[in-house]
Amino acid sequence: MKKKLTKYLFVLPGFCFFAFAMLIPFVMGINIAFTDWDGVAASYQYVGLKNFMDIFRDARIRTPFFNTLEFALIGTVVGNVVSLYLAMLINSKFEKLNHISRTVFFIPVCFSSVLTAFLWKFLYREFISDLFGIKNLLGNPFWVIPAIVVIGVWNGAGINMLIYLSGLKNIPLELYEASKVDGANAFQQFTRVTLPLLMPAFSVCVTLTLTSWLKEFATTLSATGGGPGGASRTVSIYVYENLYKYYKAGYGQAVSFLFSLCLIVIGLCVSSFFRKREVEL
After folding, report:
1. pLDDT digits over 211-231, tens only?
2. What is the Cα–Cα distance from 69 to 74, expressed in whole angstroms?
3. More confident site: 52 or 21
4. What letter would DSSP give residue 97?
5. What is the SS3 assignment for 153?
6. Which of 212, 208, 260 is nearest to 239 (CA)?
7. pLDDT given for residue 85 in this prediction
8. What is the pTM of this model?
9. Helix 62-92 vs helix 235-244: angle between axes, to the nearest 10 degrees?
10. How far apart are CA 81 and CA 205, in angstroms?
């Protein structure tokens, strides 16, 4: 009993912080989603399911919705490909400089999203534009999302890189030696040995990356504010604008609540998909 009580005491501070920062605001937000509150007034009226019905009639949410899907698709694929490539590079080419190379590739993770966005805004405007003779990509409606994905991947690839690197370290070298004896080339070793045994890492990295890009907010807001012309406005930014710009807190909370449920469902489905394909050693 004393040991169990000790475990709960260690968990209690973290749970209290989680409840204060996440759980209580989430529950309060559910209540606001059924009201017409403007985010400022001291009183509000309950409107039932009106806010949720308005979501499906709101034509303005279509662009943020499709932008969010584009962010999720491009960001998840590019982010995991880059992270896996860096992990394999460190594991093979830079094995003798393992700690140094890991530190170098992980440094961008230490920068905040806002600082990273301002840094890359300068690079796109002053350096990349002059070097390649092109206009600022953040001002191009067609290229703005890929340009922001580059910022996000540079900022966060180091985390997934360490997860993939840990998975690569756990793959027995005997499997690669046996595949060489059987005549497998490098590509076949990658597809038949490396990828199947990295499924536990994929379960974590793909799920986290996908949900992270679906709720993309800080980097895009700092880099473009959702522009140009709404070309990079995401669902999270749309919620933010309804809460603090359009003074439609009730409607914004309804969108946020419905979007949160979608994220939970998507995360569970993706995680379950990769869990079923994991290979035990």
Report:
1. 999 999 999 999 999 989 899
2. 9
3. 52
4. G
5. helix
6. 260
7. 92
8. 0.89
9. 130
10. 11
